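Two quick folds needed for the group meeting slides. Do the first one here.
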Amino acid sequence: MNAVSTPDARLAEVLGALSLACDVAFAFPLEKAMRTCVLGVELGRRHGLAEPVLHDVYYTTLLTYAGCTAFSHEISLLSAGDDIAISNLLIFLDIGEPVDVLTRLLANVGAGRGLAQRSRSIARVIVEGPKSGERHAHALCDVATHVASLVGLSDGVRATLEQICERWDGKGAPRGIAGEALLMPMRVVNVAHVAEIAHHRAGRETAREIVKKRAGGQFDPAIARTFAREGDALFVALDREPLWDAFLDAEPQPHATASSARLDDVALAFARVADLKSVWMLGHST
């Protein structure tokens, strides 16, 4: 009897579905990763980037928060148990403004807890916060690049994922990469990620204002100018429905595929990521 071959699956379909789990882990609205993917590719295309670079933008966006569970335990210890609320707060703050970051953190950490517990959490943030930020960046980068390797993505995607928490002005982590040393896909993803959150939470004008404000700091000013110039068209692309179709159409050619054997690797990668949520669950899914 002849063996029946299993057709390859589009990798975007698999990772797009699994990205919903990352959205949940960060308490983002569902489809946040996919919306950012659409916005990032459209922004990169209007900035004049070549298709191979757009491919790296697409898959870097999908896996940027694949490591979202990597530091959950540590953030939970810092925040009196509410790692999701604190992670969701931090993800939108500009670390280039440390006074604002600290003020917002102190106002929210341990919220709803008793005075003693909240005081301990605030003390931990003040004492351990700076070092925790660097360790957090290491963890996010390490897990995301590991997932990209298991999934079989390109060297370009893996290299870009090592810069998830870096910034144009060099104030990021873990290596303080700055300016032109920051890989182009990451420069685009940085803008798309924050702009998508701002757009979803507060609308188009807020997204424009935040990108403009952070140009030259968190963002490559050239990418920020493209965003300002092409904003209307970018928002039209972002608001296209159904989102799933827009997300799949955004993937540059040729579309990446995964064999049945590779799908097992994808499942294993996300099982490991899920288990990172708690130190007591490591290895459970496997």
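Then this one, please, same format:
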Amino acid sequence: MKKSVGYYESWAATRACTSIRPSQLNPSLYTHLIFAFAYVSEDSRLVPAADSDVDLYREFTALKQINPNLKTMIAVGGWAFNDPPYQSRFTNMVSSQQNRDTFINSAMDLMGQYGFDGLDIDWEYPAADDRGGRPEDFDNFVSLLQETYSAFQSISSSAQRYELSIAV
């Protein structure tokens, strides 16, 4: 099956010139739309990057009313997320089973609350020391992906099946 994937960045709604709200997108052009970005909190939970994003989440996932086959996903991370003060958040989150579990459970809660169909992880770049990474990030990132996929599969039903993607 051919996929057409697009990203919507939250700051598009507040740009001084040509601001674009999610409701202005044409959802029939895509199989998947990804909302960029949510963040990892200090305690390893997936949280909105800004309080104003929650209204955009609802508007974004409502696009499925126009295209019922559309999958909407929430992306976590992005380039700026590896700048201070967020620089070590991914590394800390993947560093322990408990932190990964906290992240995965909070991601499923957020996706369920706002009607997202999946999670896109945009970690730039695991283990890169100039981006706050550590060598063990490689193995811990693989563990995160395996555990997230397993968690998504364990709750999957015909009514809800979460998707997982990574920006590489």
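Slide caption for protein two: The radius of gyration is 16 Å.
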